[in-house]
Here is the input.
Amino acid sequence: MRWCYTFTDIKSGSRRYVGTAESGEQGRQANRLNERRVNNHPDESNPAIFVEVLMAAVKPRKSQVTRSRLLEAAREVFREKGYHETRVVDIIERAGCGHGTFYDYFKSKDDVIMALLSELIAELDRLSESAWVLMERMAFDDYEAVRIILRGISDIFDRHADLHNVYIEAAIESRRFGEIFNDYHRRFSEILERKILDMKRSGKCEGLDARIASELLVTLVGFAVYGRQAGFISGTVEEVTENLGLLVFRALNY
Here is the structure.
């Protein structure tokens, strides 16, 4: 919502206005603009005040609509063509805007992907931050705990399934996305490696190299989710999670 105070008359310092008091920083900025105008012109009617308030309030909203339209067009094109085949001009044509408009918001198609995947990246950040605590509390001889964690990871990627293949393709072809992919892989592998080392000290995970095993397991989990979404791994979410959980559980408790 916006603060939109419509000043209709200003005489001798008194003010009469009609306004819908709406929240938001842009509204507050518009209101402050009016306050300055009222103070500068206390003895005259100034219809330009209303115009400026309206423009100050509407322009950011129009910008957000344009950006959203570009993102939705990009999502459609990426789904249809994939990362490699998608060009900036494809996004522009789908959105029905000009080149200048696109570059007002994004520098490249990689910037568009980052915007589209920002929520997924935020969820992975939150998961990695809490994973250390989760791993400390979780026992790998508790199968239910293993299954719950794997289902949680699957749920995150299912919420962004329409672009999962685009993200993987981008990670392979683009250095920028490859570094992001490698960073998350490293983070989760280190978390799992520490847990495997703890288990080895208790006499489990016999013969396993903790680092290699953790890297393999993180890769397995990630591509199992992708494989189910892409259709080359059969089964429902529950069935795939159940089987993957049993594999991980039995391997680590051998």
About this structure: The chain has three domains: 4-61, 65-109, 117-252. The first strand starts at residue 4 and ends at 11. The two ends are 59 Å apart (CA to CA).
